[in-house]
Design goal:
Length: 676
């Protein structure tokens, strides 16, 4: 049997989907409850209690308690000591899973062979792998790891007839997540996800405790927050007051401290005003996500509320105001939607050994994934992003990396980084891969590094030289990674990502009327591809070829040089071809070599150009060509070395062609050396 498991921070649930009836049911635990507390209690007689019983012990203060260990998943420093034994988060999760599965098997009267387990969207590679291992350790086949918001959206959307774009607004105890999902004939595509992982119900509780303590201090001159146990008691009480306010207009609050008793009333209106800034913080996350995806409110059909904190009436009110529509759906099973979604995926979406799936679910990456590389000036380390945040899964990117001249080495170390910053120390270092087996002639060479992110959000690294796959082996991460913040000089095994781009512009007479437009577009293009590891050269051609600027990493130098481009400066016709010249300019530096040719006409010596293009291809130079006006697309296809690298466009659409190419260059998707 296959089940879905919501392995939560505070509670877990298990669900099963029945294909024949289309119904999804929660499987109650041994106590007949839908949810099992994520708590484990170790007793001194060696007994281990899990779930409901352990929670009772927690309240009574007996034994050694492990709770909220999901937060420490993948963290090797975390452990719970109990009677001479040490338990890490993965082991604890495995024990909890075993209990959940055992209870469910008893209830179902059959054995469970496989499961889909959910994780928060922000879980990184470590945490996902640890979750898979925890499942496998208790003898089940982990079909898939899916993100909690995706699961919630699936349980809500999989059998809806209408196609919809849905926003999943998940406000939990300590985290906030927002995910945009498209539901189309039962297929689910996640468009993007983002979150704030230090914002949640706890912050609302704190507002209440602060408010009460301020009033108490005004009245009695003493502050209950000065006493640790009074403070903790109040935090627990505040959560209850908050829950009352989800149902009632006001709540009566009593606080006893040092012989004084304060009595106060908090109205829901007051509470909502005092916590508005917290809702505003969720709005900021939403706005950034929507802006990044280019999606407006008018495109969102429904907002789905999940997470315990979205039970506060202010949340739905706030979202209705924001969407301007009455399309905010309070999900009937806020707490169980995740397990149900996982069960549906286990039955309908996850391919089993037969490889068959009824429906598709496309998820995205919650973080960017990069490689540690040296900046072109050799002065510092940077995180070169390989797979951007919110890329569709599975995702794959291949980029060329240079090994500088002088660095005669037989190994390259690739550190995979998770995070958005250029600064590696602000990212999470996931793994160290060592690449060997390449030939480095000592004058600098280029190898391609490929990242693959699979459907479970797990990362793989491969490397190639001239299309041949190289050895790539994982090594244990060094404990001290502070050197990533320093100067790279002493490490010969570092890789540098260098992109060299030659922009070749037709300057024949026919360009007279449009050269200014073309210059403007080139200037935008240069700005969009420029970074410290990109060199650009500017070449003009007509009957002759002129290198206007050699390769430089300063975009302003190129933009200024555009002024020097004049019609007829290389002759009035197009008897020359810039390919050989650009080829030799590009060969002066290691790294990726790309050429962009712009032309508005038919060249005089086309055969020569085609043979020059073949020489470029043999040398790993990527040629892209944009034509307009009189240009001939079939000729451009002959000289382009990159699939889809030849484009014919109207002059007023030139900007679109440039931005397609800029995106391909920035994401390493120019079809580089994948063979054509
Ligand atoms: P997580 O997924 O982060 O573990 P949950 O989604 O279970 O958390 O939500 C827990 C949070 O929901 C807690 O902060 C709790 O106080 C809050 N919560 C639960 N029920 C209500 C309610 N009726 N009104 C307001 N907040 C609630
Ligand atoms: Mg949750």
């Amino acid at each position: 049997m296959k089940v879905g498991i919501d392995l939560g921070t505070t509670h877990c649930s298990v669900a099963v989907h029945d294909r024949s009836t289309g119904k999804t049911d929660i499987i109650p635990n041994g106590f007949g409850k839908d949810m099992t507390p994520s708590v484990i209690c170790f007793l001194d007689d060696g007994e281990i209690l899990i779930g409901e019983d352990a929670k009772d012990m927690q309240a009574g203060g007996a034994g050694v308690i492990a709770a909220s260990f999901k937060r420490s998943m993948g963290d090797t420093d975390f452990s719970v000591e109990a009677f001479g034994q040490t338990y890490g988060a993965e082991r604890l999760s495995s024990m909890l899973l075993e209990k959940l599965i055992g209870d469910a098997e008893e209830r179902l009267g059959g054995s469970i062979g496989s499961a889909v387990i959910t994780v928060p969207a922000y879980f990184n590679d470590f945490q996902r792998k640890a979750t898979i291992r925890a499942g496998e350790a208790c003898g089940i086949d982990v079909l898939k790891i899916i993100n909690e918001p995706t699961a919630a959206a699936i349980s809500y959307g999989y059998n809806r007839a209408a196609d919809k774009t849905v926003m999943v607004y998940d406000l939990g105890g300590g985290t906030f997540d927002v995910t945009l999902v498209k539901v189309e004939s039962g297929n689910i595509s996640v468009l993007g996800t983002d979150g704030n992982h230090i914002l949640g119900g706890k912050d609302w509780d704190s507002v209440i405790s602060k408010h009460v303590c301020d009033l108490f201090e005004d009245e009695f001159g003493v502050d209950p927050r000065e006493d640790e146990s009074a403070k903790n008691e109040l935090i627990v009480a505040a959560e209850n007051y908050k829950k009352v306010l989800s149902k009632a207009d006001n709540v009566a609050i009593q606080l006893r401290y040092e012989g004084n008793t304060g009595k106060y009333t908090l109205t829901r209106d007051e509470f909502e005003i005092k916590t508005q800034h917290l809702l505003d913080a969720t709005r900021d996350v939403i706005a950034e996500l929507m802006e990044g995806l280019g999606i407006g409110w008018e495109e969102i059909d429904e907002v789905l509320l999940v997470g315990g904190s979205s039970r506060m009436p202010q949340v739905a009110k706030f979202l209705r105001r924001m969407t301007g529509k009455d399309n905010v759906v309070e999900h009937s099973d806020t707490d169980l939607a995740v397990a149900k979604g996982a069960a549906i995926v286990a039955e309908l979406y996850a391919s089993d050994k037969t490889g068959l799936t009824d429906r598709k679910v496309v998820d995205v990456t919650a973080h960017s994934l990069g490689a540690l590389t040296v900046s072109i000036d050799g002065k510092r380390y940077i995180n070169e992003i390989m797979i951007k945040k919110n890329s569709k899964l599975p995702a794959k990117t291949r980029k060329p990396f240079g090994i500088g001249p002088g660095n005669l080495t037989d190994r390259i170390e690739v550190f995979t980084l998770q995070g958005e910053s250029r600064d590696p120390l602000e990212c999470h270092v996931l793994a160290k891969m060592v690449i060997t087996g390449f030939c480095n002639v000592g004058s600098g060479t280029t190898i391609d590094i490929e990242y693959t992110y699979d459907e479970n959000g797990v990362v793989k690294v491969n490397a190639y030289q001239d299309g041949e796959q190289l050895e790539a082996a994982a090594e244990v991460l060094p404990e001290d990674i502070s050197w990533m913040g320093g100067s790279p000089q002493d490490r010969p095994s570092d890789a540098v990502i260098v992109k060299n781009i030659a922009v070749c512009v037709d300057l024949s007479r026919s360009m007279t009327s449009c050269l200014d437009d073309v210059k403007g577009q080139i200037s935008d293009f240069v700005n969009s591809v420029a970074d410290e590891n990109t060199n650009i050269s500017l070449i003009g051609f007509g009957d002759k070829v002129k290198v206007v600027r050699e390769l430089t990493s300063d975009p302003d130098v190129i933009i200024t040089a555009l002024d020097d481009l004049k019609v007829n400066m290389c002759g009035r016709g197009t008897d020359g071809s810039p390919l050989a010249t650009a080829h030799s300019v590009l060969s002066s530096k290691p790294g990726a070599k790309m050429m962009l040719v712009l032309t508005d006409g038919i060249w005089g010596k086309r055969d020569k150009a085609v043979s020059e293009s073949l020489a470029c291809r043999g040398d790993g130079v990527d040629i892209m060509a944009i034509g307009f006006a009189e240009a001939d697309l079939s000729f451009l296809r002959q000289i382009a070395t990159v699939e889809e690298g030849a484009m014919y466009t109207a002059l007023d659409r030139l900007g679109d062609a440039f931005s397609t190419i800029a995106t391909a260059i920035n994401t390493g998707a120019t079809g580089l050396r994948q063979g054509k």
